[in-house]
Each structure stands twice: as structure tokens, then as C-alpha cells.
Amino acid sequence: MRFLFITLISYLLLIISPHSYAKDPYIIGLDADLSAVAKDGGIAIQRGAQIAIEEINAQGGVLGRPLKLVSKDHRGNPARGKHNIKAFAATPNLIAILGGVHTPVVLQELELINQYKIPFLIPWAAGTPIIDNGFEPNYVFRLSIRDEQAGSVLVKEAKAEGHQKVALLLEQTGWGRSNQDSILKASLEQGINVTHVSWFNWRQKSMKNELTRIKESGATAIMLVANAPEGATIVKEILKSPEFKALTVYSHWGIASGQFTESFKPEELLTVNLSVLQTYSFITPTNPLLNNKVLRSYAKKFDKSVTAESIISAPGVAHSYDLIHLLAAAVELGNSVESANIQTSLENIKSFKGLVKEYKPPFSPANHDALMSHDYFMAKYNESGFLVPKTHEEK
Amino acid sequence: MSMALLVSVVLFVSFFLFIQDQVNNKHRAQLEQIEKIAVNNIDNITVQVENLAKNDLIINSLIDYEQRESYLSVFFQSLKITDSSDIAIGFLNFNAEPIVVKNWTLFEINSDAFSWKPEVFEQGKTNVDVTKQGILIAAPVMYGDMAEGAIVVYVKSLQDVISYSSSLGVQVLVNDEYEVMFSSQPEQLPVGTYISEKKLSGTFSVKSDGRWWRAFSVESLTTAYQDVLQLFVMVFFLLMVVIFATNYSARISAKIASQALKALRDSISEASKGRSPINQPVSKREPSEVVAIKASVNFLLHDLLSTSLSRDRFESVIDSMSEPLLVLDHNFNAVLQNKSMTNFAKEYRVSMPDDINLIFPQETWQDLAAHNKVEIDYSMYGTLTVKPLILEWLLNKYISDGQEIGYVLVASDLTKQKDLLFELKMKNKAIDEASTAIIISDMLNGDQPIVYANRAFFRLTGYDSEEVMGQNCRFLQGPKTSPVKVDLMRKAISNRESLEITLINYRKDKTPFSNSLTLSPIVNDAGLVTHYIGFLHDVTELQRAASYLKQAKNKAVQSAQMKSEFLASMSHEIRTPMNGVIGTLSLMLNEELGEQQREYATVAKDSAQSLLSLINDILDFSKIEAGKLGIEKHELDIESLTRSVYRAFKSEAEAKKLTFNIDLSGVKEAFLIGDGGRLRQVMNNIIGNALKFTTEGEVSVAVETESSNSDGIVICTWHVTDTGIGIKKSRLKSIFESFTQADSSTTREFGGTGLGLSISKQLCQLMGGDITIQSDLGKGSTFSFSAQLGLSDNAHNILFTKLEEPKPFERVNMRALLVEDNMINQMVAKKMLSESGVEIEVAINGAKALERLIANTDKEFDVIFMDCHMPILDGYDATQAIRNGDGGNQYLDIPIIAMTANAMKGDKEKCFAAGMDDYMSKPIDLSLLQNLLTKWQHKIKPE
């Protein structure tokens, strides 16, 4: 039902768009968690894509045809994801798929992507194997955190804040596992002691045991790799005990992808030493003009009251915005919507002025990840419950 | 019986229904049970499936593709949902494609039978399907609000899920098409069987709807109802017993009840006929209700009787009155009268209204009208009768419906009452005016007050009525009143006895008087003493007289006593010298004497003898007066005795030329017991008198004996008839008085003391007889004297015979000791004894006698003649001493003969008591002495 609805809406949007052509639009498929645990992220991606598509269409589309976004909801379920990819593959005029949130879903979709040879653009999924997937040619292009890079940032931050002993609290998925590798590696490199590694399951209700073991292990900081529900559970558990509150939590961006802050009173969050890995904040834009333009479009399309601070899952929005523009650019560059062409063209873009940053280049044949560790930063929740970059003030 | 049958049918039906219900319930219970078990089991599986679907690991594994392979399949392979092997377990993804499965082919074969996907994946709800094809339980694996996957469990057969053992019949669970999905007895009803109506016919089946099925519990009719049959038989039997028992007891109680009721009915009909109130319970078995009914009917009858009296009943009531009842109307017509009135009318020949004036004389009307009653004494008016008749009439109004329509008159007959009253008045007057003082005390109230005192009492005591009435009579007592007597009185009164007592009472003026009081209790009909009557006599004078007399009597007794003592001593003192005189004179006359000497001696002796006789008479008289004369008892021959006296007087009679006869023909019993001496004395007196007072004619003596009523008593009567001077009739009585003779001149003419007859009379009286006289003055007299004599059985009386025959005396040969203090007596006795052949030694008193006896151990004496009155040791004591052996052992049994001047009553006994063997009185009579000697000679030396 929902798919139908979304499809209909998208179709209507396309019809009533001022620049609707007689020609059939090119379809960009969106496969994201639009209703489940990471729906904030999913919606953010969708919205970013939609703003970008609107702008492109306002410019005449690509190759004279408009772009259209078709969204599918994988609900975080890899099975669904796969199902969606299959469905997209059968969709005519599909030029690329925008996917993400979560890494596990994306990982399961990789086979099909490779099979169908569809350009797979990832605005939000950090699992390293997503890009390092072993497929040649690699149709997967990411503008997101790469776990491999994430680990070192988290560890660096921890070390910078004086923690010698850290514990890992990871979700029992591919994502969790990929982070384990990177954090351990980073810890080793940076001379930090990983005292304990704890795993948890999705929807796990109690994290007490894990936290206890972490505390007992002597760690003073937690490297958290969790999505919003589990993150909330963990932080709730931490809030219950002063013992746990002593622990500093350095979290991957997963918890910001969904209903996290809603579980707490803003003042509660402030009592926890929690910092979250982020890539972009509208508060500290790289390109202020573009930043504001996007904000305005966002406000007009989606939420009148939106602010740079309050925009939900800012990275998602920004990443997908940039990815769509990059795609369009690639199509224009290659003058083709053929998958192979798009793939090559993406690799060949020399430079691009995106929202997140100015990419020089975004991708290369050797590197399909557009963002690296130097692009990441830690953010903290403010009294309003919004993430703000933890830059100068906290240091 | 039909009742029983009906009852049993009803019972059977109800029992059958009951059993049916029971069986039904049992089956139902089983169905419930099986339902519970089945549902439980399925729910159990469902829960397991749901739990599994909720498991984090499962949820996680949906996301975590890579790693899940490693644990999921292992986990699922190890999963055991039920014990069955025919079970498929699958973990499916969102489009029902298996992720991990176990035994999945089993499910895939049958998967078409189930539509579960929409419910599970779209609605996110657990789906449970139970069909013929098996059980499918599918639970969604929820991630957020949507089902991202499902856990599916498929069991091929319901049979595998339910383990149930039925206790009764077969339980099956069937689907909508009535095909068996589960059977508790698969052999009987296998799975897949179609349960049709046909199949259920001939069975007992219960149906119920279950969660996913219909349930049947089936049992063959026979097994279902076999209990019924068994029970039925038992119940039927019991029922029969009960029916019979109740029938029987019902009949019995019906019988009792009907009997009781019949009795009751009879009683009621009896009672209603007016015969009697209903009788009380006939038997104990009469039900209490019947008794109650009887009581009620009794009450009813009683009420009927009392409230609705019919005329004849009314009449019987009034007829039961003894008083005449007369109801008159205003015209004096008799409206109603009772039987008594009718009788009255008949008796006095009156009828109303004509004779109204006869019954109610005019004079009485005023009283009657004024006081509603009047007392009429008909003898006054002479109307009805001349006999005494007094009636009191009471008048009442005769009222009917509030109207006074006549008079009701009732008469009480006061006649008798009046009579009694008059008699009472009379008697009261008698008592009141009696000379004896009478008081009546009330014993029941208070202090036993005096309720009546007559005039004599007031006269006697000096009190008046107010002072006496209500007081207890103890006010009569005073200081000299003997407390003992008072106590006796009190005791008698408290015991409600009568009493006669004399005690000192006091008059009002405090003067004492001797009151002879008689107390008499009055007892009422109940036996209770209500009053005491006291009769008071002033016996002061009497008492005085009595005490005076007593004193006099005492004096007299005293004097008599003195007299007899005097006599006793006198007797001895007088006799002793007399003895001497007569004795010596007798001795002298035995000597050779000259004519003149003999004449003088004879005259002297006769004078002395006369004097002695006189003295004897006087002594006898005094003895009799003093009561000291004793009547002896010894063997008598009346004929001999009388002849002896006759012979003694014969010469005197011949001298006077009188015919002297003796007639002993009247003697039936000659041998008697009595006092011969006294009889002789009387005979001497009477015959002597007869001869003395007869100058010519004859004197005859006749004796007769008569047995009296008492045993062994013979009344002997002598009749001495003479033709003498006779006795004046007026002197007949006084002739026996002392010192009188028939004529004061008799003494002068005939001599004599005048004591003779008096003594004789007294002697006869002492002997139980008397003397009577028949006399004609100048013609002659017959003196009859009698005595009561004992009957002797000893006809052979040697002494007596001896006394009779003038056998010449033979001299005896004895040695005797004579103990006698008086010289004269000594001399006389010695002379007499030695003349009779006795060798005499003399001791002057008892002591000397003892000395003499004990001097020798030889028996020197054969007999002792002992005087009684001696100084130092008198005869009695001496005798006793000898008997004790103080005279020596040889003399222990020596005959001791008393010689004493005492001839008083008791002297003889005294001698014998002392130990003497015989007795002789002084002065000594020679012939008597000789007889005695002869007797003892024989005793000492029997021949």
C-alpha cells in the first residue's frame, strides 16, 4: 500500500512539477528505511534527494529529461532491501538507486547490484565492505562515513579527551563487525587499550549486563556502534546509574538516524558524556550560500519551522543532495544514462562544489568513498536536543 | 399398588433422566477436558512460536544476514516444539520465503490448505489454523510495527498435539465437515472418519463447539446405561421395600386414626345426647390431636350447656335446688316454679294465685317489699300448717328483656335452724347457770384465749366477763400453784389430751383455792382440736377434809400398828402366866387330890380357861382388826372335823335335854384344804351359841359342799339350826358388830363378850365366805356360815386320822433339850414332857443351849424344844445357829420344835424359816403335845 502511495505521490509530483516534460522521466530509485528504526535517516535522504532533483529539474533535468525519485522502504530488513532492488531492477528508465541506512541492508543488496549493474549511491551506510566489496566494476559509490575511517576519529577523540581504556559496544551486525575491525585497528595505532568488546542485538531490551561488564573491564569510555533504538536503551541504562554515567560515550552516527532524542528529556542527555560522529551540520556550513538555499528549499517543501539546528539527520540530507547532483553531473558528463557510463563518469568527475564540501575529486577509480576521516567531526546534543558540532567549546 | 407403580414409573423416569444427565455431564466433562487439553496444547505451541518470534536473536538475525547462518540453523534444528516428529518449523522472511526451516517439506505439501499470510504479514497477528490437513501456527517477527518475518510451525495431525485418555467412550474433534481431526480412541474412530448421523445412531453422543472444532463424545448406549440398569434394579428393589413398608405403616396409622376418630365420634354422639362429657383417652395410642379434639368438644359442650340452656335443662337446674323457687307475674300467677316449690305447694295444698295470702300473709308484705326478704313463722299465722314451719323468703325482680314483669321468690327453710337455735339457747343457758364453773378456750387462735365463761366461773373466781374474755386462763395461777402441775397441764394441752388435775388457783381477790380442774378437748370434724372446755371445782374444803381424814387414817393406822405390836407383845406376856396357871392346875389335877382340893382346882382351871378363852377372843379380835390374823392351809376332812366338834358339844346338848343332830349328807367333797382351827373356832362359836340360846327343842348341824366356778375351790357351808330365842329382825345386822349382843341384856343372861359372832363373821370372810342368819324371834334361827376351801387330792391324811381317833397315848422314849427362859414354863413343860416319856434337860436361853449341845460330840439329844422369845439368843437365832453347825455337826438335822406364846400370823412361818421343824403354841395342850411327840417319835425312830 505504502509503496503504491509513495509511487503515486512521486508520480503526481512529477506531473505537477513546473518543468514536466512529455518525455518520461529518468527514475532514481530510493531504497531506504523510511518507516522503521532509522526512518529519520531515510527520510532525510529522501528529502535531500528530492531537493536536489527539484533543482535539477528546474534546470531542465538531465539530458533533457526530468528526474523522478521512486522510494521504496526496506524498513531495515535486508530481505526487503533485496526485494526492492529486484523490483528496481525491473523498473524501466531506472538510472540509479539511492540506498542506505542500514549497512546490513546495503551489504545484502550488493550482490544484486552487481548482478544488475545498477549504480548504487550510498548517502548513509558506513560499513567498510560496502565499498570494499570486491566487485569489479564496482557500481557502489558512497558519500557517507566509512567505518574504517570512523574508528580512528572516535579513538582520536577519546585519546584527546584523556581516555586510555575503552570498551566497544557494538551491534551484532555487519556494521557492528566492520566497526570492530576499524576501532581495534585505530586503538592499536593510537595506543589506546580496548578492554572489552560487547555485542548486542537489535531490539535488545536491556543493556545492563553489557555496561556492567564494560565498567568492570576498567574502561572509562565506550565506543558505541548502535542505531537509535539500541542507542536509546543504552543511554537510558547509563542514566540510571552514576557508575555508568562516569563513562564517556563516543558514538557512531547510528543513534542519530532515528528516534533517539525523543526518548529523553534534553536535560537528561546533557548529563551524559555523549558525543556523536557526524559529517555535516547546517550550523557550521562549508558553503553557506548553498547551505541556506537548501535550508530554504527544505523549509518550503517539508518543514516551515526548520532551522539549521533542528534539521533532522542533517548528514542524510546533505549527503543525498550532493550525491544526486553528482549523479546528474555524471550523466551530463557521460552524456548517457547507461550504468557503465554513469559508473565511469562518476569516477571521472574532477571536482565538484557540493553542500558538504568541495570535492576534489569526489570519487576515483580506486576510491568510491567521497568522505574521509578529516571530514568527520564529533557532535554533542545541546539543551534543545539537537546535535551541534563539538568543536571549539568542548575542547 | 397402582400408586406404587406410578411412583416407581415416575422414579424410573426421573432416575433415567438423572442417569442420562449424569452420562451427559460426564461426557460433557470429558469434552471440556479434551477441549481444555487441546486448546492448552495448541496455545502452548502458539506461545512458544510467539516467544520465538519475539526473540531478539531472531529479530536480529533478520538484519544480520552474514552471521545468522552460523547459529540459526543449528538453533532451529534443535528446536522441539512438541514431541511429534510430524512437525515442520520455519523461520520465514517478510514475503514468506524460508530463512531457516526444519522439516519444511511437510508444510509445503499442505501449505495450500492454509491462508495465513495476510494475517501474519499484513496485520502482524498470530495465526492459528486447525484443519484436517493439520495445525498451522504462524507468528510474525515484528520489527517496529511491521512484520519483517514469521515463525511458522506446522503439525500434521491434531492427534500429535493432544494427549488424552478418555474414561468414557470416544471423544473426537471434528472440523466443519464433521471429519475427525482427533480421536481419543483412534482404533474405534480413526482420524479422517466422517461422523455422520448414521454413525451416531445407536450411541449416546454429546456435542460441543470448540475453538477450532466441534467435539463429540460418543459412547455406546449399552455401556452408558449399564450403570442405569444396575442401579435401576437395586433402586426398584429398595423402592418396593419402601413402598411396602410405608404402605404398611400408613395402613396401621390409618387404622389407629380411624379407630381414634370412631371412638371420638362415638364419644361426641354420646355427649351430645347429653349423657356425659366426652370421656378421656381410651388408650395411650390415641393421637394427641384426637385428645385435643375431645377436649375442645368438651369445652364446646360445656359452653353450649352453660350458654344455651333449654327450658328443660333450665328446669332441671332449678329443680336441683332444695329451696322452693317461685316466679310470679304481677297478677300473682305462677310463671315458673321449681320442683321444691311444687312439692311445697302439694304438701301445704296451696296453689297460685289463689293462695297467695296463705303463703304470704298480709302482715308480711310490708317487710317483704321494704327489705326484699321476710321471715315467716307459719305456726303464728296458722295458715299453712300447725306444725312448726319457718321460712325465709327472698324477693327479686323477674326481668325479661330489661322489663320487670314479675317477682322471683326463693324460700329457705329455717325451721330446723330455729329449732337448733332454740336448743342451743337452752343449752347455753344450762351451761351458763350450771353450778360448775365452765370456761372454753380457743386453741387455734393466739394465746388460747377464753371465749366463754359461765356465771359459776365468775362467781368462783370473782372476775367479770371483760376481765376474763380473751385472756389465757393462766391468770388463775399464782405463787402457790405447783409448777409441776402447770407443766402437766401444759403437756396435756399440747398433746391435746384430756386431763383431770387439782391445783392451786387464785381468785380475783388473790385468795387461793384448790381447783379440781377437768380439761376436755373439743375436736372438729377434721380431727383438729379447736377448743378446750375446762370444768373448775373449788375443792378446798374437800381437800381439807381429805387431808384431815388422811391424817386421821394415818393416826388410825398408826394406832392399829401400835395395837398389833402391843398385841404381839401382850400375847406373849399374857399367855405365859396363863400357861403357867393352867399348866400347873392341870398338873395338879393329875395328882392325888382331895375332893375339896379337886373342886377348887377344877374351878380354878375352868376359870383360868375361861379367862384364857376370853383373852384369846380379845387377842383374836385385835389381830383381826390389825389385819394380823392368818388363815392357814392344811389338809382337812370336813366330816371328821364337824363330827369332832359335834362330839365335843354332845354332852352339853344332852345336859340341856336338846335334840342334837348332825347331817353330813351334803358333803360331796370331804377332803379339803383350809384352816381347820379357825373352822373349828367358828363352829364352836355358832354351835355354842345355838346351844346356848336354845332352851328346848333341837339344834342341828348340816354341812354341804359345792364346787365353785373356779378350779379347785369348794364352798363349804354349815347350817346350824336351832329352836332358840331367835333374833329380832332389826338386830340381825348389828348382831355381828363388836361388843354387841342381840340384846343388851344378853350379856347378863348368857354371858359372853359379844365378840364371838363378830370374830366368826370376820373369820368366815377371811376364809372367803360369810355368815348369814335367818331368824324368827322366839322361833329359832339358822346360822349359815361358809368358807372357800381348796380341793385336796390327798385322801390319806395320817395326821388328820390320828387327830380324829382317841387313840390312847403311848409313852415315847426320847431325850430332849428344853430351851426356855421362864421358870414356870420350864416347870410345866418339863413335867408334861417327862410324863410323856421324854428325858429332859433344860437350857435357860439359846446360848446356853448351844453350849450344852456342843459340849459333847455324841448325839445326846433326839429333839430340841425351843422357846422363841428368850434373852441373849432367842429361839430363831439359836435354831439358825444349830442349823449352821454351831451346836455341833451331830445336831445339824436335829428336830427342833418351837414353843411359843406368839400365835400371830406369820409366827409359824418365821419358826420354819429359822429352821425349826414343828410348832407348838403356849399354853401347851397336853393332848396336842402328845400327838406331836408321837409323830416325832415315829420320825426319830421309825418302827
Your description of this structure?
Chain A has 395 residues and is α/β, with parallel strands linked by helices. Chain A has 14 helices and 14 strands. Chain A has helices spanning 2-16, 39-58, 78-89, 103-116, 128-131, 147-160, 174-190, 208-216, 228-240, 242-245, 266-270, 288-301, 314-334, 339-348; strands at 26-32, 67-73, 94-100, 120-124, 140-142, 165-171, 193-200, 221-225, 248-251, 273-278, 352-353, 358-359, 377-381, 387-389. Chain A starts with a helix and ends in a 6-residue tail after the last strand. Chain B has 943 residues and is an alpha+beta fold. Chain B has 6 domains: 1-54 and 165-301, no CATH class; 311-418, Beta-Lactamase (2-Layer Sandwich); 434-538, PAS domain (Beta-Lactamase, 2-Layer Sandwich); 546-624, Signal transduction histidine kinase, dimerisation/phosphotransfer (DHp) domain (Helix Hairpins, Orthogonal Bundle), CATH 1.10.287.130; 632-800, Heat Shock Protein 90, CATH 3.30.565; 809-940, 3-Layer(aba) Sandwich (Rossmann fold), CATH 3.40.50. Chain A: Pfam families: Peripla_BP_6. Chain A: It comes from Psychrosphaera haliotis. Chain A: Keywords: Signal. Chain A: InterPro entries: BCAA_transport, Leu-bd, Peripla_BP_I.
Lateral strand order in the biggest sheet of chain A: 7-6-8-9-10-13-14
Kindly provide the radius of gyration of chain B, computed on alpha-carbon positions and rounded to a whole number of angstroms. 74 Å
Shape of chain A: globular
SS-based class of chain B? alpha+beta
Biggest pleated sheet of chain A: 7 strands, mixed
Helix content of chain A: 40-55%
| CA(first)-CA(last) distance of chain B | 129 Å
Mean pLDDT of chain B: 82
How much strand of chain A?
15-25%
CATH class category label of the largest domain in chain A: Alpha Beta
The CATH topology assignment of the largest domain in chain A is: Rossmann fold
The ordered H/E elements of chain A are HEHEHEHEHEHEHEHEHHEHEHHHEEEE
Question: Which structural class best describes the helix and strand composition of chain A?
Answer: alpha/beta
Q: In total, how many beta strands of chain B? A: 31
Tell me, briefly, the overall form of chain B.
elongated
> What is the CATH superfamily classification of the largest domain in chain A?
Response regulator
